[in-house]
């Protein structure tokens, strides 16, 4: 059975992830370990022991501001340090993986520089024994200089980092926004990366190819719900719902997906 989980809050004042997972009917959770829009140093999650005791599969999402691809040193160097810090804190939390967006370069830059910057991250970490848990790079919805939006860009990124064991997160809303066909996206991505480690199972509020990242309920969006279930079945990977609302909204989504896969 595919693991189905839900994204929950970052810290103790954002609620109890164990209770939220139980109320949603979920087997796992995705959490932040610090402000997703800030540079604050992460710490292991305050509910780490309780999540382990409950048998939940845990994934940690790095802050959205992390962008190790950019040529802007004021962003790239702190991003690299923050990614390393989050990897350590995520491992201490007992997470199965650390998710990070592919990032982008500036409009004036050759994207090749961004792919090379990604490679440097893994090269430097390999010199220190590697990351303490899998680092999973997520596809993105828009951006003309993105590192992981189109299949071509994902291919170039994997030429740079694939040999280091980088993992891949397929976000279904992002893929839809980027113009990736949900009927073929799993095979298309696996042909490039050889793997899908996690699916962010999100519907979209916007039309195919919109480049807009606006999540909708699995059951109420532009992507046919059965198409999302087909993606999960084909990927055969754990899934996290980053859909709007709380357990009342997500429990029916999880029930639907389980009934289809």
Describe the structure.
- By secondary structure, the protein is an alpha/beta fold.
- It has a single domain, classed as Divalent-metal-dependent TIM barrel enzymes (TIM Barrel).
- It has nine helices and ten strands.
- Strands 1-2-3-4-5-6-7-10 form an eight-stranded parallel beta barrel, surrounded by four helices. A two-stranded antiparallel ribbon has the order 8-9.
- Strand 5, helix 5 and strand 6 (167-171) form a beta-alpha-beta unit.
- The longest helix has 21 residues, at 73-93.
- The model has no long low-confidence stretch (mean pLDDT 96).
Topology:
Layout: E1 4-7, H1 17-24, E2 28-31, H2 48-53, E3 57-61, H3 73-93, E4 97-101, H4 111-127, E5 135-138, H5 151-161, E6 167-171, H6 172-177, H7 185-193, E7 198-200, E8 203-204, E9 215-216, H8 225-235, E10 239-241, H9 247-260
Parallel strand pairs: 1-2, 1-10, 2-3, 3-4, 4-5, 5-6, 6-7, 7-10
Antiparallel strand pairs: 8-9
Could you provide a short overview of the structure?
The chain is an alpha/beta fold and 261 residues long. The protein has helices at residues 17-24, 48-53, 73-93, 111-127, 151-161, 172-177, 185-193, 225-235, 247-260; strands at 4-7, 28-31, 57-61, 97-101, 135-138, 167-171, 198-200, 203-204, 215-216, 239-241.
What's the rounded overall pLDDT mean? 96
What is the first-to-last residue Cα distance?
Answer: 8 Å
Based on Cα principal axes, name the global outline.
Answer: globular
The CATH fourth-level homologous superfamily: Divalent-metal-dependent TIM barrel enzymes
Percentage of residues in helical conformation: 25-40%
Task: Give the strand order of the largest sheet, numbering strands 1, 2, ... along the chain.
Answer: 1-2-3-4-5-6-7-10
Along the chain, the helix and strand elements come as EHEHEHEHEHEHHEEEHEH
Low-pLDDT regions: none
Assigned CATH class: Alpha Beta
Count of alpha/pi helices: 9
Share of residues in strands = 5-15%
C-alpha Rg (nearest Å): 17 Å
What is the CATH topology descriptor? TIM Barrel
Strand-pairing-aware structural class: alpha/beta
